[in-house]
Structure formats: structure tokens, C-alpha cells
Fold this sequence. Notes:
Belongs to the short-chain dehydrogenases/reductases (SDR) family. By secondary structure, the chain is an alpha/beta fold.
Amino acid sequence: MFTSLEGVRVVVTGGTRGIGRGIAERFEAAGAAVLATGRDFDISTPAGAAALAEAARERLGGVDVLCANAGIFPPAPLATMTEAELDETLDINLKGTILSVQAMLPLLQASGRGRVIVTSSITGPITGLAGWAHYGASKAGQLGFVRSAALELAAHGVTVNAIQPGNILTEGLADLGEEYLASMTASIPLGRLGAVEDIGNAALFLATLEAGFITGQSLVVDGGQVLPESLT
Length: 232
């Protein structure tokens, strides 16, 4: 049995829908005190990230676990991608991750058991997806950040890890249509799309005291999607 997470103070960015909501609900079910944020905080700016940290201090009294999950997944073919589309995706997915961790540092260091858990993806670090080059770049960038941040924060007892979801059944994925969902399901050896609870469970593990010697790592949660050499 893992040590209880009862009373552990958790912030989940992008925690009002999709994977973030699944993460927040799993922590709540485990007895943690959770602050789940949505678009009420613009973590792509230093001021927005600082406001989030202040809200965590006021509402939770501190932060033990930061789940840096906020992100967007807009399509933009490379040939027609605008600078604004590129900037928005990098600002929210990559810059927002960095700024939110930076703003939370004093609280995480004071915790004595600080955890940073970044929601990355298999798209970018492992696989590619036509029409989402900017998204893939942002997710690969997150893993570079995780490794270096883990080194910087180790002296303070703060671990930094990432989860790399495969295709998880969320509102955004459902919007891509039944044909897309069927093709994605067919590519997963376990025979189903992931559930948001699957990512929540991975986050719970990385937040435990028992995971305290794991840092700078990424955990792929994809039902085996990236394993086959071919689909036949």
C-alpha cells in the first residue's frame, strides 16, 4: 500500500475538463485538497502564473503537488500555420508549464515533499501527427524542461516528472470524429482508448512518497500504442 495522500495540497492547471479534470478527480478521491484551474488564470504570462501561486497560497495554505496540465491541441498544417497559431500553442503548452513551475517554486520548496507532474504527450517526443507540428514541438519541449528542472530542484527535494498520454478519450478527441476514434483504437494493442482516470492514476503514483526517488523521468501511458513496428 502507498502512503495516503489525505490532505496533500494539489494544484492542477487546466483541471476543469479532459485529462486535467480526470487528474483532479483522482486526487480528490484520494483525499487531497485540490485547486483545479481553467481559463481563470493565464499561465502563459508571469502575472497570471504569479496570481495562480497566490491563489494556491490563500486557498490551500501551500502546494505539495503541481500538475502542470494546461494545454491546447489546435490543428494547424505547417504550410498555412500563422505566427499567431504557433505562438499561442507554444505560449500555453510550453511557456505556461515553465512559468507555472517557476511561480510555484517557493511553495513547492517549502512543502518538504514537492512534486511537479507535467502532462506531455507521445505526440512530439515519440510520434508525429500531421497537422500538429507546433503541438508536437511544444510537448517535446516540455520533456527537455523536465530533465533540466529536475536537476535544478533536486537539491530542494522537489521531483519533476512527466506523463506522456497516448490517445485519451476526452472532449477534444471526440471532436475529431468517429472515423478518427476507430482508427486510433485499432492502433492500440490493449484494444481501447485511454480514460482520463488512467492518467490520473499515473499522477497519483508520481505524487506518492514512495515515488520520491524518481525524477527527470517520463511515464508513457498509451495502452502500448507506440510499441508495434506496424499495424499488421
